[in-house]
Specification:
260 residues, alpha+beta
Length: 260
C-alpha cells in the first residue's frame, strides 16, 4: 500500500506536467488542500441544511440510506436541487485542475456524497465508474473531497493504480447505491494500491476506469466524502454499455419489488 503523489493546486508548468503524467499513468492523483478549511466549514453547514430541508422531499432514486434505515449513505444529483452545490461543482479553480487532467473542457455531471456514517457506514465493492457512466472515450473523472478525515480505520477509498485501460466485465451487485460490481473480484498487490488517507479539504481525483473500493466504517467517526463528477465535453454515451447498465439496474429493481 502506497500513498498517491501529492500536488498542490497552485503549481508551475513542470508541476502541472507531473500532475497530468501521474494521472495518466496511475489513474489517480492526490491534491491536498483543494478546498480550504473555511470552505469545508461552509460545506458542512450546507450538507446539514440539505439533509434537513431537501432530503425529505427527494425522489427515491436520489437518496440511499444505510441498513439501519435512518443514516444517509448517498445523496445523488445534488446540483439539481441546491444552487450552493451546483456553484461548488463549477468553481473555476476546480475546473482548471480537472480540465488539465481530462484534456478537454470539463462538464459537471453530478454532485454526490458517500456519507460513510460512524458505526453504520457500509463498504463499496470493487468497480469502475464507467460501468455506470458508459462514456466513450472514457475521459471522465471524479473529484473525491474529504469532508471528514479519512483514516486507515474508517473505510477509506482504495485505488488500484494503472487499471484505466480496460473496462472490465461488471454485473448487478444488489447493493443500493452501488448497483454494479466487477464480475470477477481481483486481489491487487499492496504496492499497486493507493489508500486515500485524507484530511478535510484534501482530494483524490480518479479516472472513471480506475478500479476502486472501500471497506465499512465500524469506528465512532464519520467519513463523509463529497464527490464532483466531470466528463470532457467531447465524450458520448456508448449505447452498448448503457444497455448493460440498464439491464443490471432493472434486475436489481425486480429483486427489490416483492410483487415481482
Amino acid at each position: 500500500m502506497t500513498s498517491a503523489p501529492k500536488h498542490t493546486v497552485m503549481r508551475d508548468a513542470p508541476e502541472w506536467r507531473k500532475l497530468v503524467d501521474d494521472y495518466r499513468r496511475n489513474g489517480v492523483v492526490a491534491v491536498p488542500r483543494l478546498v480550504s478549511p473555511s470552505d469545508i466549514a461552509d460545506v458542512r453547514v450546507a450538507l446539514r441544511r440539505y439533509i434537513r430541508d431537501t432530503v425529505p422531499h427527494l425522489p427515491p432514486g436520489d437518496l440511499v440510506r444505510e441498513a439501519d434505515g435512518v443514516s444517509v449513505r448517498n445523496l445523488w444529483r445534488m446540483e439539481k436541487y441546491d444552487d450552493y452545490f451546483a456553484a461548488l461543482g463549477n468553481r473555476e479553480d476546480i475546473l482548471h485542475v480537472v480540465g488539465a487532467l481530462l484534456g478537454g473542457k470539463p462538464v459537471l455531471c453530478a454532485v454526490e456524497t458517500f456519507n460513510k456514517p460512524a458505526r453504520h457506514g457500509s463498504g463499496v465493492p470493487q468497480h469502475q465508474d464507467n460501468a455506470y457512466f458508459c462514456q466513450d472515450p472514457p475521459d471522465m473523472c471524479t473529484v473525491w473531497i474529504a469532508i471528514d478525515a479519512a483514516t486507515e480505520q474508517n473505510g477509506p477509498v482504495q485505488y488500484a493504480r494503472g487499471t484505466t485501460h480496460t473496462l472490465l466485465p461488471h454485473r448487478a451487485s444488489g447493493i443500493p447505491g452501488n448497483s454494479m460490481v466487477m464480475s470477477q473480484l481481483r486481489e491487487y498487490p499492496a504496492e499497486q494500491v493507493t489508500t486515500a488517507i485524507l484530511e478535510p479539504g484534501d482530494a483524490m481525483i480518479h479516472h472513471c476506469q480506475t478500479v476502486h473500493w472501500s471497506t465499512p466504517n465500524h469506528t465512532d467517526y464519520n467519513r463523509c466524502g463529497l464527490l464532483l463528477v466531470y466528463r470532457a465535453s467531447h465524450t458520448r454515451t456508448d449505447p452498448a454499455l448503457r444497455e448493460l447498465y440498464t439491464q443490471a439496474a432493472a434486475a436489481f429493481a425486480a429483486r427489490q419489488d416483492p410483487g415481482m
